[in-house]
Amino acid sequence: MSGVDQVNAVAFNLLFMQVAFKALEDSKTEDEHDHEAAFYRIEQLGYQVGQRLVERLLAQTQVSRLPEQIDVVKFLCKEFWMVAFGKGIDNLKTNHRGVFVLQDQNFQWISRFSVDGSNPATAKMAVLYLAFPCGMLRGALANMGIVTTVTAEIPSFPQCVFQIRTQSAAQ
């Protein structure tokens, strides 16, 4: 990673930290933060970014249309993930019925969190940080014609698992 890339990453981390805190503050009701409302706000921001990013990426790579869902998800795991997170996804699994599981063994966005996953405050904040990439994936897939639900979990810091469930799999 070059010096410019490192500065960009630090600047983004600081900006995103403020976005997360602002979403939490805006969702505050009666001295309690509504993490679900904050998650939704951040996920919506990610959705918009994902739509725009994949549109730009498709134009740059001159990919017009990917024929199968698996091809679209593979494109996201290689090309999209590289642009968005600086590396490809570590593992992709599918049940071939519209459910895809993406594993990132060292997800940079949560790598700076305390490794004490037993702390509920840390776990809640880490989940909030995953709202944006969930939205990015959902937005990118929507822009490519696939309606999905995207969830994320943290088996252990900094490992992250994203589950993509297409609309056809939910039926």
UniProtKB/TrEMBL annotation:
InterPro entries, alphabetized: NO_sig/Golgi_transp_ligand-bd, TRAPP_component, TRAPPC6/Trs33
GO biological process, one term: endoplasmic reticulum to Golgi vesicle-mediated transport
One of the Pfam families matching this protein, by short name: TRAPP
GO CC terms, sorted: cis-Golgi network; trans-Golgi network; TRAPP complex
PANTHER family assigned: GEO08327P1, TRAFFICKING PROTEIN PARTICLE COMPLEX SUBUNIT 6B
Family affiliation: Belongs to the TRAPP small subunits family. BET3 subfamily.
Protein name: Trafficking protein particle complex subunit 6B
Organism: Paramicrosporidium saccamoebae
